[in-house]
Amino acid sequence: MAAYRTLDDLKVYGQRILVRADLNVPMKGGVVTDTTRLDRLAPTIKELSKRGARVIVLSHFGRPKGEPRAEFSLALVAKALSDVLETDVEFAEDCVGASAESVVNRMASGDVAVLENLRFHPGEETNDPGFARQLAELGDLYVNDAFSAAHRAHASTEHLAHLLPNAAGRQMESELNALERALGAPKRPVAAVIGGAKVSSKLAVLGHLLDKVDMIIIGGGMANTFLHAQGIEVGTSLHEPDLADTARDILEKARTSNCEIVLPKDAVVAAGLAENTKVDSCAIDSVPQNRMILDVGQGSIANLEARLKVCATVVWNGPLGAFEVKPFDVGTNRVAAAAADLTSAGKLVSVAGGGDTVAALNGAGVVDQFTYVSTAGGAFLEWLEGKALPGVKALS
């Protein structure tokens, strides 16, 4: 039984539904360049519209710092959303006040409207009760479908949920169900793949996962810090020598928690990070002093593929190498493909998230084969850290 209501629990016909969405999409030259977030929002809007609700979409866009700025208007995003939904979408030039009220009052059952950028008002980011009340006056019910903004205690994500009967949208529901399957009550053994450049940005994640998973696979620049902490030469590789003691502490806590830390066995090295540069492979304890580790080697790939075969669940955050530059995407691509194949065969529950992770899995061409891939960056990371997310807590 979920600790929150869903759309199944709401009577929506004729009701004004405030849907907190995340329309913070990439845009170039006035054109939305990636509609993933709009595509994922569409099921909630379409369902509410089909059920006769008046759907009023709230969102932030960029960082306008509490004042109206033309380059952060949601007008063009509303047009893109209209294209995705294949229906007309009204647009209000403010999210509160006369222009918002005018648009909302004109709406008939089934209509969809987008209100202007919430962050044009300073009260949004300060979680101002007065601003939240102004928003609440426009609706009868509140639906949060923006997990990616749930880590922020803002007026539209936190306070508004206390002012109206609330529920999770379909995307939020899917996300929370996937996260529960990954760490809340997972099938074991559970592996976590944690990559990226710096240990310092993932300390809280590693600390939280030690008691939650059976195995932590560490990749990317992070692995170099752990190797250095164990006295292994990492050449000119990116690493954080000042965190050597911290890395040793994590390794010791892992031992007492019966959580295995898996580090690379071999590496792909080069003189520098450049497209199609000359590369060599070597054992992890044989990295030349004038070379940098930029990807895991074939032995490491085979080891990780074998380990995934004995796991029932994998949580993935971060690449295994400098995947943005070829040929250093091979390790991430191969291991991601292995996870995808196991998922497709029904042998693995795979949940991934974080900006770099989504880009890496897109590059590997396996996003659609994972059980769930979250587009949330900060919210996914804070969930991995074990933090309570204000936007989720407010729905309970």
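the 2nd protein, sequnce then structure:
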Amino acid sequence: MVQDNLLQIRAVRENACAVTGSRYDYDPLIELAGNSRFALLGEASHGTHDFYHTRAQLTQRLIEEKRFTAVAVEADWPDAYRVNRYVQGRNDDADAVEALSAFQRFPTWMWRNTDVVEFVAWLREYNDALPEGSRKVGFYGLDLYSLHSSARAVLDFLDKVDPEAARRARYRYSCFEHFGEDTQAYGYAASFGLSKSCEDEVVNQLIEMQKLAGDLASRDGRVDPGAFFMAEQNARLVKNAERYYRSMFESRVESWNLRDQHMVETLDALVNHLGASSAKIAIWAHNSHLGDARATEMGDHGEVNVGQLVRQRYGEDAVLAGFTTYTGTVTAASNWDAPAERKRVRPALPGSYEDLFHATEVPGFLLMLRGAEWLSGVLNQQRLERAIGVIYLPESERVSHYFNARLAEQFDAVIHLDQTRAVEPLERTSRWEAGDVPETYPFAV
């Protein structure tokens, strides 16, 4: 067993491309992803600076060198679309911070952080410098939590272009009014028959929006196609979110699958909008969404995810890249809707991929897995892999934050950064500044 582990450590070390801080560290990944249509760039947590920063650097190179046309992120559609309008110079936001101000839903630090501000500012500068008439790079959200803000966006659009259609939409969406903004209360009541389901209303609204497309397109350019695409996508989101919130109280697997299927449905709509033959998209989301679920215990439980669905649809035109870390700090909460904290990430559990990578004694490296058959054999042995979301509970580390995976089937490439630090929220509280109290307090051993 010890001998096998030593051979595995050696195999990883000999195949690792060390990360030195050079622009060229990730050339093999840029070449592989750049020749694809979709670069799926993950993260092992929702609160690690090094993941955000490296992902932004990779995306900048894909845009500059490989002509990627959009960034699609694990974020709500209407909030991200405001950023899209800013980076394309189509709204009045003064700067990147203001453009990100719509992100008010927990966890705000996922998108309102210093790394995202820097990337959004860079994207605006890049677009501004393009020759006149060039297609500008967009920024879009894939997630479905924004039921109410998406419904409002549909109504705002229809009020401007078709007041009678707006009246019908307002009547349909009033089905949710009894629950205010509490979508989970609606889902609970509807799933247990305590209140009428709004399913028919939201489906009918999307159907009407799709029928409106031809009429609006014939109005001699008076309706911006981008504005209609945004509104239609919001109507689609309301339909999918309504079903998602009902499913939350019926089946965890079904609700997970509905969410990731919605993300891929949104991605497909985005591809068609941008041009199926020319769209090249960088996708930012958690490893658990972007690594192929079939190579993990998620797949064993019947869950699908974005990585699996995109691979099945686009084959080698999709490149899946994950991130791992051994220890450091992370921005996360202790409970849902709780304040952001800067928490220490415990050293990875023995026997995990992160522990194996730490044992190489290489502080940071890129592993290219696609086509590396003998290395894939080493990394296709099932091991634990860590996943930290917006909540981190170190006291229940194994149960809360690890799952079994076959890494070389899950990803085409992996970036390991051995020690990482927390992402910096724009709203830094005294609690975040204080960080964790050391476990040895008050003895400082």
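Residues 436 and 442 are 13 Å apart (CA to CA). The chain has two domains: 22-143+280-445, 144-251.
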